[in-house]
Amino acid sequence: MRLVLLGSTGYHPNEIRHTPCLVMPELGLVLDAGTAMFRLRDYLVTPELNIFLTHAHLDHVFGLTFLFDVLYQRPTQRVIVHGEAEKLAAIEQHLLFPLLFPAKLPCEYRVLPADGLDLPGGGRLTHFPLAHPGGSLGFRLDWPGHSLAYVTDTTADPAADYVERIADVDLLVHECYFSDAFRDRAVLTGHSCVTPVAEVARAARVGRLVLMHLNPLINELDPVGLDVARSIFRETTLGTDGLELEF
Q: Domains in the chain: how many in total?
């Protein structure tokens, strides 16, 4: 299984990172639609594309407005955007308000079923709530012999309910907006700092941890402290735009 991080920061792009968009090209699966969506064009190889949204904050959905160019002269003929009903409605009513974006997107919308749904390749996606202003979802994707969890926009805590939902996955992609110096800020904004994220990975017994949704104000390759994470959970990697992961 191959996962590509097209965007690895949060809130807004900076000189080296765009906001969240992850793709499994061979399966036509996308997680979130941030500003990095423009890069998706080079990874389209399937006739159907399924985009799963964690929530409707702009840094996770703005890239939907790029779909016309992303799909131009590419093999994808059908795009389905999956999310919670109220988040899909917010996108339709506000992001796509005619005075802001006077065109109907070339996609259809589906509300995520409470019990999850089947994925290409014999997989299964399930979702779970995350504590974040306005609400967010985490995703777990399982195939025979392969598993992935995507947790973004929440305050990491090894005692949180979601830790059980991601237990034993091969790969955990988890937000890590702040270094430990900003722990109070993380709690205030509903985001995570590095030590609790690494503790979550350890508590969930995951195979590997990738840190993303990194602070865009710190325009450096390591804005959060990779060494701190590795002192707690050795198999930790810092997410970067274009990073390809096999799991």
A: 1
